Amino acid sequence: MGMKHMSNVRRMAARRLQSMVLAGALGLTTSLHAQQTPQPAPAGDIVGVGNFGHIVQDLDKSLGFYRDVLGLAVTVNVPFGPNEAVAKFGHTEGGQSRVAVVKIPGIAMGIELIEYKDIERKAQSPRFQDPGAANMSMRVHGLDAQFPKIAGYPGVKILSKGGKPATLTTPNGTLHAVFLQDPDGFVVEMLDVANPPADAPAGFVIGGGSFEPAVRNSEQSVKFYNELLGFDFKLGTAFNDNQDMAATAGASGASFRQSTARIPGTAMPMTLIEFKSIDRKELSGRTQDPGSTVVQLIVKDVAALSAKLKAAGVPFVTTGGEPVQVSPALKVVIVKDPNNLLLELVERGQR
Predict the structure, then answer these.
(1) What is the chain's mean pLDDT, rounded?
(2) What is the pLDDT of residues 6-42, one digit of tens each?
(3) Which phi and psi angles does 84 have, rounded to 5°?
(4) Among residues 55, 58, 289, 345, which one has the fewest Cβ atoms lying within 10 Å of its Cβ?
C-alpha cells in the first residue's frame, strides 16, 4: 500500500494566530505555493509518507463522492481478491479487500479507500473530536457553487454551524470554509481559495493541507511520536476557546489545542488535535471496520523499528507481531498509536 505498488497490495494552530480553525486548511490564505515550499523534515526511522487509508462500507459510494463530486482523480483501482500476506499484516484472515486511491493535488498523501468483505465488520461512526478519528484538509476553488452537490450526496453530513460554509474574519484575512463528514464519517475540511495562482490545477480541489488526527491526550501522543517515531511535534500548551472556530468545525462548545510537525522525510504537515468540554468516545476499530483510519508511513528498517516499538509496549495489529514480507521489495507491519489510530509501517526495497 502507499505508492502504486503498495496500493496494488491493499491500497485549530488557532491559538498561535487566533486565525485557524484547524492547522491544515484554514491557516492558509496566501498562495498555493506557500503550502508546498517548506523544506522536508529530516528523515530518521520514518523516511516518507504513503496514503491516508479510509476503511469504507461501500467503495462505489465513496468513489461517487471523492471522484464524481470532488473531482479527484483515481490513480489505482484494485478489485476484490484473496491475498494471504495482506490478510496477515492487517489481521484480516478470511477476508478480501478492494482498493481505490484518489489523488489530492500538490501533496504526497493520497486517500486510499478500502472495502472488505467475507469478514465481520463493525462501523465505527467516528466524530471529529473522537480520539483515533482523523481528517484531511483541502483547498478548493468555487466552494459555494459546488456546495449543493456536496451537501446533497447521500450520507454526507455538514458539520459547520448552520449546515453551510462559514465566513470567518481573522488576523490573516477573511476565510470561507466548511467542515463535513463523508459517508463513512471521515471529516473533510474545505477552505475556499477565491483567487488561486495561475498555475493551480484545474478543477474544484486545487491542493491539500494537513493530516489531522484527534488525540486523547496531547502530552502522551507527542511523546509517542517524538520518542518512538522521530517526529518533532511542538506541544500545544494552551486550549483555544474561540467558539466561532469550534462551531465552524462542528464542535460547538468545545475547546481545542494543537500540536504540529512535518512527517519525517517530507514537507507534509501533521497536526494532533485534542478536544475538551465536549463528549468524546474511544474508537477501537479493526483494520476491516468502516470508519477506521490507517496511516501509511514509509520506514527505513521495519524490522528494527518493530523491535523498538515492541520493547516500548506498543500494540501490534499484524498477526504474529512481526513484519510481513508482501513481495521481494515490500515489508509491512501495522501497529496502534496511543489513540488506536492504525499506523501501517512500510519498508520498500530496491525495485
Answers:
(1) 88
(2) 444 443 333 332 333 344 433 333 333 334 456 888 8
(3) -60, -40
(4) 58
For 4-11+23-348, CATH number out of 3.40.350.10, 3.10.180.10, 3.40.50.300, 3.30.710.10 equals 3.10.180.10
Average pLDDT over residues 212-216: 96
Sequence-distant (≥ 6) Cβ neighbours of residue 260 within 8 angstroms: 13, 23, 210, 233, 234, 236, 269, 270, 271, 272
C-alpha cell at position 179: 467542515
| 3-state DSSP assignment of residue 145 | helix
> Distance (Å, rounded) from C-alpha 265 to C-alpha 48?
5
3-class DSSP state for residue 22?
coil
> CA 342, CA 337: separation in Å to the nearest integer?
7
* pLDDT value of residue 118: 97
Question: Using only C-alpha atoms, what is the Rg of the chain?
Answer: 19
60 has pLDDT over 50: yes
pLDDT value at residue 40: 87
Residues in the chain: 351
Q: What is the b/e burial string over 312-324, where b = at least 16 CB atoms within 10 angstroms of the residue's CB?
A: eebebbbeeebbb
Q: What pTM was computed for the model? A: 0.88
What does DSSP say about strands 293-299 and 342-348: parallel, antiparallel, or unpaired? parallel
Q: Which amino acid is at 308?
A: K
Residue 187: strand pairing partners: 135, 181
14 grid coordinates: 488557532
Asked if 236 and 257 touch (Cβ cutoff 8 Å), the reply is: yes
pLDDT in tens, 237-293: 999 998 888 888 899 999 999 999 999 999 999 999 999 999 999 899 999 999 999
Amino acid symbol at 62: S
Are 201 and 71 contacting, i.e. CB atoms less than 8 angstroms apart? no
Phi, psi of 122, deg, nearest 5: -135, 115
DSSP string, 211-252: EEEB-S-HHHHHHHHHHHH----B---S-B--HHHHHHTT-T
* Distance (Å, whole) CA 98 – CA 56: 10
